Amino acid sequence: MIRTALNSNVFRMGIRRFCDMTPKSSREASERHKVVYNNVTERDIEAMFDYSVDSEIISDHWDDAMEVIKKSEEVFPLDKPSEDDLLKIRASRPTMTLGSLVNESKTLQNLVDLGVSLHTWDKNGHLGLAVKLDFVRDVAPVIRFLADLGVEHDNIGKILSHGPEILEETEANLKTRVAYLVSKKFTMDEIAHIVSHSPSWLCYSVRSIDARLGFFQKTFDFVGNEVRHMTVSLPSLVTWKGTPNQVKKVIFSYNEEMGFSKEEIKEMTLQNPLVLKTSNEDRVLRQFELLHNVAKIPHDILSKFPDSLLVPWLRTKPRIKFLESLGRAQFDPTQPNYVSPELLTAGDDEVFCEKVAKCPLELYDKFQKTL
Q1: Whole-angstrom distance, CA of residue 166 vs CA of residue 182
Q2: Cis preceding linkage at 81, omega within 30
Q3: 99: exposed, middle or buried (C-beta count within 10 Å: 0-12, 13-18, 19+)?
Q4: Taking the chain (371 residues) in consecutive chunks of 10 residues, what is each chunk's mean pLDDT?
Q5: Rounded Cα distance, 145 and 222, in Å
Q6: 266 CB neighbour count, 10 Å cutoff
Q7: What sign results for the dihedral spanned by CA atoms 163, 167, 173, 179?
């Protein structure tokens, strides 16, 4: 039977101790690659990012990324596994049921104990990898690495569930990618947060992450603190499959179709980066048309309430009509009884009726039936 993390010994004995069941020889091999990130100095990584370590701005030289990567390889050899190496732990999709596989594999049982969703692996075609994994050799070193990085125990299972490819990365590669973030002045707490909220982050090469961060920096003329703020606020935006192509379309829609200025789009992005992470900009456009063209809310106010643009227009339309019927559709901040875009769009209908419409929920329900 598949065991759950709640009933396992993992959280009673702790992740670190759980993985320390690794044989001494394996632990010694792991220690040879150990990097103490809190003590990373300019000397340690000067060949890697010598032009950016001392810079408050994250980088003014994004076009030099290729040269940076070459220098990084001198300090942290990539030692990328060959296809033959990867085939040793890959296997074709198994025909056995998930339950029977778990019952027969101690490694899979340990993964379940750690909170790893093997159903997610199965759904995404990664279960073949799981069958060939050896816990001590392939899994324990990654778990120790994440724990030492400061990732919370609960999040380790989430990372392995949604980013199992990390188990195919060498420890040297993982440490190089963390050292890159250190060089860009992300704190260790911020790095742990980034890795926890974007499980695939450490599967991206330094070149790829550097180019993605550079895209946002160039697009909005971000300085270092702004790039870091956006990244920590929504790490998954950086690694999203829609970055940069879909993000460009979204920015075009905000600018050309909705009429927001570059500075207003920048302001919205820093407040809530989710405004850029949408696969259907037309939905945002319909909501904008309600708020701007129907409610007559100007751009400068909407840019201060970016969350309101992400609310489904089907929720907003009846609210505007209802407030108009009550004589409460006041969206001018200079007038009494002002209703901000946040008050108009946020919360469920009960909260809307209590705080904005000032009426019983039943009255609003009856109104919606007339539409």
Answers
A1: 19
A2: no
A3: exposed
A4: 41 55 46 43 42 40 46 47 52 54 78 87 81 88 95 92 92 96 97 96 96 97 97 98 96 97 98 96 96 97 97 97 96 95 96 96 95 88
A5: 31
A6: 19
A7: positive
